[in-house]
Amino acid sequence: MSSWRSAGISYVGYSAVAARCVRRCLKPNDKVDAVNAAKDLMKIRAYKWENGKAPEQPELLTRGNLA
């Protein structure tokens, strides 16, 4: 059995903990680059379905327009 599963957390939770540990071990100038790269990778698309169909272009949510 995987160590993360025996600890009672999901794989997503495990990978978040691992990423946090790696970022903490980085040198200060590399740490800023890693944190900014992680923010750039996080994108959420919201689909507002109408009449049983998804829109052609979903809205890209950012920190500024999250509800």
Automatic annotation (TrEMBL):
<comment type="similarity">
    <text>Belongs to the eukaryotic ATPase epsilon family.</text>
</comment>
<dbReference type="InterPro" id="IPR006721">
    <property type="entry name" value="ATP_synth_F1_esu_mt"/>
</dbReference>
<dbReference type="Pfam" id="PF04627">
    <property type="entry name" value="ATP-synt_Eps"/>
</dbReference>
<dbReference type="InterPro" id="IPR036742">
    <property type="entry name" value="ATP_synth_F1_esu_sf_mt"/>
</dbReference>
<dbReference type="GO" id="GO:0042776">
    <property type="term" value="P:proton motive force-driven mitochondrial ATP synthesis"/>
</dbReference>
<protein>
    <recommendedName>
        <fullName>ATP synthase subunit epsilon, mitochondrial</fullName>
    </recommendedName>
</protein>
<dbReference type="GO" id="GO:0046933">
    <property type="term" value="F:proton-transporting ATP synthase activity, rotational mechanism"/>
</dbReference>
<dbReference type="GO" id="GO:0005743">
    <property type="term" value="C:mitochondrial inner membrane"/>
</dbReference>
<dbReference type="GO" id="GO:0045259">
    <property type="term" value="C:proton-transporting ATP synthase complex"/>
</dbReference>
